[in-house]
Description:
Oligomer: heterodimer
Order of helices and strands of chain A: HHHH
Number of domains of chain B: 3
Number of strands of chain A: 0
Helix content of chain B: 25-40%
Radius of gyration of chain A: 12 Å
Structural class of chain A: mainly alpha
CATH topology of the largest domain in chain B: FAD/NAD(P)-binding domain
CATH superfamily of chain A: ACP-like
Distance between the termini of chain B: 16 Å
Distance between the termini of chain A: 10 Å
Strand content of chain A: under 5%
Number of helices of chain A: 4
Shape of chain A: globular
Number of domains of chain A: 1
Strand content of chain B: 15-25%
CATH architecture of the largest domain in chain B: 3-Layer(bba) Sandwich
Largest interface: A-B, 17 and 19 residues
Bound molecules: flavin-adenine dinucleotide
Shape of chain B: globular
Structural class of chain B: alpha/beta
Number of helices of chain B: 13
CATH class of chain A: Mainly Alpha
Helix content of chain A: 40-55%
CATH class of the largest domain in chain B: Alpha Beta
CATH topology of chain A: Non-ribosomal Peptide Synthetase Peptidyl Carrier Protein, Chain A
Amino acid sequence: MSPAEIRDEIIDILGDIAPDENLDELVDEVSFRDQLELDSMDFLDIVMELRKRHRVQIPEEDYGNLASMQSTVTYLEPKMRDIVKA
Amino acid sequence: MYDTIIIGGGMSGLAAGIRLALFDQRVCILERHYTIGGLNSFYRMGGRDYDVGLHAMTNFSRKGTKRGPLAKLIRQLRFKWEDFPLAEQIGSSIRFPGIQLDFGNDIELLQDEIAREFPGSIDGFQRLCASLLDYDDLDGDDSRFTRSARAVLDELIPDPLLREMLLCPLMWYGNAREDDMDFGQFCIMFRACYLEGFARPFKGVRLILKNLVRKFRGLGGELKLRSGVARIHVDNGHAVGVVLDDGTEIAGKRILSSAGTVETLRLCDDITEVDVARAGRLSFIESISILDTQPQQIGFDRTIVFYNDSETFHWRMPEDSLCDARTGVICSPNNYRYTAGDGVLPDGVIRITTLANHDRWCGLPDPKYRAEKVAQYEAAVHSAVRFMPDFRRHTIDTDIFTPKTIRRFTWHDNGAVYGAPDKQLDGTTHLDNLFLCGTDQGFVGIVGAILSGISMANRHCLATDG
Lengths: 86, 466
Ligand SMILES: Cc1cc2nc3c(=O)[nH]c(=O)nc-3n(C[C@H](O)[C@H](O)[C@H](O)COP(=O)(O)OP(=O)(O)OC[C@H]3O[C@@H](n4cnc5c(N)ncnc54)[C@H](O)[C@@H]3O)c2cc1C
């Protein structure tokens, strides 16, 4: 997946977790927590969805990389590079 | 081999099951009863639908709210707000001799009431509101959690009667400890009752349970009813599976139990004796009256009334009697703001809850048990009508359930409704793959139990499952 495709995938996951949010206006550099009021339970869901959909494993000590869209895509890029978008 | 075996198909077990099934675990819920719901189930009798527990769902928030327990559970379980169409309360009341404080889903009403009745305590009340712990601060390691709520109130609220009045609803809706309350639990219940408030689905607890079970099954979860767990097999400090009442063995990688702390430990192969003193002992009788009219027609428009007939609120199991009706909760499920589309409930209903002694009820021989049910129903109503219009001549049907009933259908020691006074907030046990959820883990009530199931599933069954 390209960074743009990874971003789309994260948007899709966020849409599942927080269906009432307007994700069109998401600013990639600002933390999810500040924009979407995500809490630790929601972050676990991002991790679990990535595992479920793409078998991507994210160890607990790396959760901090999922703070914003920008940092998430940067972190996932090497892990998801070889995944072919369905 | 299941990834997770869940003991108990009540609110917490079902919620935990959904979380695990959502992420493709092989998960099985084992429930001893022939139906789901546990402490908050439903039944049909004489052509009428009854709820076991539901007076009010606490923790109300309006559709679209992003914070708070209700929003969290809707998100975590992938529901939509529309799945839980909740009608808000009309208004509730705390009634002591000669004085009442009304409250609703907006804290301003209670503030105004306190400013009027207890002007010397209103500043203290505002300070109390500002010093409540947030839900996120509530973990067992926080020393503020286990402080005495009475000690905190003594510092902030000068008027002793107001302290008693504020504690009454909060203890009734979620305090497993006698006399006093942990400050952490006080904060949870203060938010749940006074800051967030009460609501009810028109169709009662059925709607909530149906949503939970449909979601769980839709995700591939297995639910086995009439499947009581008789034993938990332990091998080398590790749970390896369970044995059902009929001898069937089921293997699992881990077990999450909502049966209660001592109740769960008792099931374990490696434990010969449990410390029964750790179990809670606060239990209730519930007296249900069906009226030939709507409660508002006889001048009763309150959703919930928490009453106490003296200036001191006694929150104790009655030692020397079957029941203690000096304090109680009166609820009318009719008194919610249902929509025109809902219509009105078919019958007028008044439910009254009073404190009861489990051992005394269970010790009664059968004919005496039935006679006492009638007598204690009458005593509860007699006590309650001092704080509401006398509805007795409108009663056309009654039902009553006792601690014995609660015990028989949930297997909780002592029929304890809010479980053990000392909670196991991290959900761990002496075994590295046996965990607790529900009443004895921490949160109680419908919303609380659901959140408990979610958070224990997340912490012990998902985050660690590589
Ligand atoms: C009279 C009454 C009124 C209430 N009113 C309200 C209210 O108005 N609002 C509110 O929010 N809450 C209310 N509650 C509290 C609420 O119902 C509970 O806090 C909540 O339902 C607890 O859910 P739980 O999953 O923790 O436990 P439970 O519901 O007790 O679930 C445990 C389940 O485990 C099963 N089980 C036990 N042992 C075994 C075994 N060995 N094998 C298999 N299964 C087993 C039991 O049958 C039970 O179904 C009320 C409760 C009562 C009794």
